[in-house]
Design brief:
Elements (H helix, E strand, L loop, with lengths): L9 H42 L3 H27 L3 H20 L6 H11 L5 H10 L1 H22 L1 H18 L10 H19 L1 H40 L1
Helix pairs in contact: 1-2, 1-6, 1-8, 1-9, 2-3, 3-4, 4-5, 4-9, 6-8, 6-9
Length: 249
């Protein structure tokens, strides 16, 4: 990721993320398809367990999906900036835990996005510093999240239409059964749901890559801005010290 540590606007970070995604999609697809397929299969299985209301099966599938998320992110960031698989998996595990906290606290936890990128990209991550700068640049991160999120929402309306139809069918059938009607879903519905969910997850996983890259560029822009401000303060201190010396002389 060349020139990631360069100050740019949130829109420029999003544009840079898309350019990197477009330039490297084929390579990433080729080198990470195993992790992507594993994630997609487990996502489809989790949907089926939820639809069949098998609580134990759903919990097991969801936990396996969480582990698969760790492997996917570890592999993805290893392709981005190198590093050993073991190191990236450990970093990804920490990042996924923080990602869960962000999901629970979406607005307050926006600075956690900067923390995640700090963990995944920096050779010696400083979580406290990343959290502090994340709060300082809350608006920048919020705008990046808002704009990229709206784009992803628009994409989902196209990419996930079959999945939305399946979910709507499940909800409608469940409401009908609560009213006393028999189940109207065909016996093959779990199989259909599994393959629809699996295919949607696989496509969406790669479609979302540019958003991840956008936050990587946003993280680099924040660090660059902080370094620039630190240099300005040092120069001001040096000028003040020089003035004091002149006055004394």
């Amino acid at each position: 990721m060349e020139q990631i540590y360069k100050y740019r606007s949130f829109s420029a970070s999003i544009a840079s993320g898309y350019k990197l995604f477009r330039a490297n999609l084929r390579t990433i697809l080729y080198k990470s398809w195993i992790e992507a397929v594993s994630f997609a299969i487990l996502f489809g299985l989790t949907l089926v367990m939820a639809a069949l209301e098998l609580k134990a099966g759903f919990v097991c599938a969801a936990l396996a999906l969480l582990v698969s998320t760790v492997f996917w992110n570890g592999r993805l960031f290893q392709l981005i900036d190198g590093g050993t698989p073991k190191d990236k998996l450990w970093r990804a595990a920490r990042a996924v835990v923080i990602g869960i906290l962000f999901t629970l606290l979406p607005l307050i936890g926006i600075p956690l996005l900067n923390v995640i990128m700090e963990i995944m990209l920096e050779e010696h991550p400083k979580v406290g510093r990343a959290l502090k700068t994340g709060f300082k640049h809350w608006g920048y991160l919020f705008l990046t999240l808002l704009m990229s999120g709206l784009i992803m929402m628009a994409l989902s309306l196209v990419l996930a239409i079959p999945l939305y139809i399946c979910i709507y069918g499940i909800i409608s059938n469940h409401l009908g059964m609560l009213a006393g009607d028999p189940s109207g879903l065909p016996a093959s519905f779990p199989v259909i749901l599994f393959f629809v969910g699996m295919l949607t997850a696989f496509i969406f996983l790669f479609a979302q890559l540019w958003q991840t890259y956008a936050f990587a560029y946003a993280h680099g822009a924040i660090l660059s801005r902080e370094e620039y401000r630190a240099k300005e303060k040092e120069e001001e201190k040096a000028e003040d010290a020089a003035k004091e010396d002149n006055v004394e002389n």
